[in-house]
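INPUT
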Amino acid sequence: MRKVSIFGATGSIGQSTIDLIARAPDTYDVVALTGGHNIDLLARDAIRLKADVAVTAHEQNLPALRDALSGSGVEAAAGPAALEEAAQRPADWVMSAIVGAAGLLPGLRALENRATLALANKESLVTAGPLIMATAHAHHAKILPVDSEHSAVFQGLVGEEMDAVERIIITASGGAFRDWPLEKLATATLAQASAHPNWDMGQRITIDSASMFNKALEVIETKEFFQVSPDQIEVLVHPQSLVHALVGFNDGALMAHLGAPDMRHAIGYALHWPNRRDLPVDRLDLAKIGQLDFRAPDDRRYPALRLAREVMQAGGLTGAVFNAAKEIALDGFIAGQIGFMDMAGVVEEAMMRLSADSALIHAAMTLDNVQAADHMGRITARELIDAAH
Ligand code: NAD
Ligand code: MG
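OUTPUT
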């Protein structure tokens, strides 16, 4: 039996992971499931999958979790220290699907524990890519990408030499507003930004898809995961979301990965790697689809893509500042404090203010220093939002 843990089990990726695991219950020994405020769902899945422990990220939810688990034999725990402890329990495979920088620490602990880390939490690589990769290396632990684009690239590289790779192209649907007139974007509401044309995902990543902050994170994720230079990474708008990524080689070949927009493909690939197993995803009928469209992204519509380039150029801990400021700007938009197009302005201004602090930005890539840069990114973005509000 493979020992597996799922961090962020109650979210969109977590639930898709559970869907796959629950289809073969005799294959998996579930160690830990974690969630946030959705205690009923967390407890239900922990009981159904016979987990050793269920952890809520929030201490105040512990009594409710204990109640929900009483008599089941599943242990209840709460708070950041409990999350960390759960990540230190022996496991063969760990899904990292917490949203935001909060996913970094459990992921690091799982790698220290030599678990194979299925990484959906792209924020880990954006905030602390070199630290994550070095931790995996030091402990001989494997990281497998779960982001659909990165899983597609990873699959395109099987049997290939990295020296032969000229470029990596990740596609973007263009999000909810890809066909809106530019001047209308400033008026986009929360409900409009929370509806994705192709993918069914958590609310935060859905809004990040509309603003392309998600793609900005993914460009940085590509650089960190595949260790390529920024000028080898391209973003291509592809409204149908059927081609997930392409790898361009030095002989001119372009290898594309196609599949239905269903995260269970990338999750299942990481679960069964290095093998492939039958997965419950739709098969594409290309004759029926008929046409695939591609276009270059418009920088005026998607300032986040320009910011991603600036992050990679600035280096150091700029990624931690960028991600933290983005999380706060997103909170500000969700709370109605700033408009849709103001998010990029807040992030850019926070990055600019902190770029002068060389001791912060160019400190060694340790967990403490990453957390300090993250903290300053949050405070600065919060000040900017409060001043504008
Ligand atoms: P979601 O919002 O649906 O779920 C997030 C999960 O994290 C929940 O279980 C929630 O309880 C938990 N969580 C939230 N805040 C937390 C905190 N502070 N501490 C501990 N746990 C916390 O998110 P999602 O869409 O499943 O995305 C999860 C991650 O996967 C994100 O990093 C996202 O960018 C990435 N991802 C998602 C998709 C997708 O299709 N949903 C695709 C690619 C990558
Ligand atoms: Mg993606």
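end of record. The pocket of nicotinamide-adenine-dinucleotide (ligand 1) is lined by residues 8-14, 35-36, 57, 97-100, 102, 120-123, 147, 199, 201-202, 204-205, 263 (CB under 6 Å).
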